[in-house]
Structures are given as structure tokens and as C-alpha cells.
User: What shape does this take?
Amino acid sequence: MSLEYSINDHCIVVTAYGVTPIEEVVQAFESIAADAAFQSPANILFDARHTEYGPPAEELETMIARLGKIDAFKGSRWATVAHPNTLVFGVARVFCCLAESEGFCIEPFSDYEAACAWLREPESEVSL
Assistant: This one.
């Protein structure tokens, strides 16, 4: 599996390794939604620092549409983190723009701790 997840007290951390097909991403999020430790709405951190895969925009749009159909994630806040100045960071930014247009509350980050801090902020303090 090229995706792993953990649920802690302030967020769900999903870490990608290598090339991660869309179907695997969707299945992982379906598993998270079914996990007994999951509570909605959630703060979700997608950690892409361990992958070099940059799917095309069409795949991103398909992934966003499929994730958007998982009701358990309605109202959740999402953060993506990738190394700066890389293709993956650029793809993360495109993913965030596309996801925002579909109603996701999501931000891209190049720093893991900054992403975690943003997710811990009370929602009223989050500026979008």
C-alpha cells in the first residue's frame, strides 16, 4: 500500500509513498470514514513529502469529485504538505485550487509543522 493513515487527537494524517493511484486514495478515505476512531468533521493532513508523483489535472478532478461524495468528510478542513519548489508541491497547489472550487476548506503547505498548526487553529481564526 502506498498510503498510510493515523488518527490522533487533532487530525488525521494520511501519508503517500511512491505512486498512489486514485482508486487507492479513495479506498483509503473510505476506510478512514469507516474507522471507529474517526469523528466528523475532521482535520485532515495529506502528507505528500514522500512521493514524487504528480498526477495530471484530470486525475485530480476525478479524485476530488470522488472524495466529495464521501459524506463523512463534509465540513472537514484539509491541509496538504509537500517539499517546496517541487512538482509535487505545484500539484498540491493545483489540487487545493480545484478542491476549493468544489467546496473543500483546504490549504497547501511546504512546512509540516505549519500545516499542523493551521489545522489546530479554531475555524473562526482560519483566514481563507
Observations:
- The two ends are 33 Å apart (CA to CA).
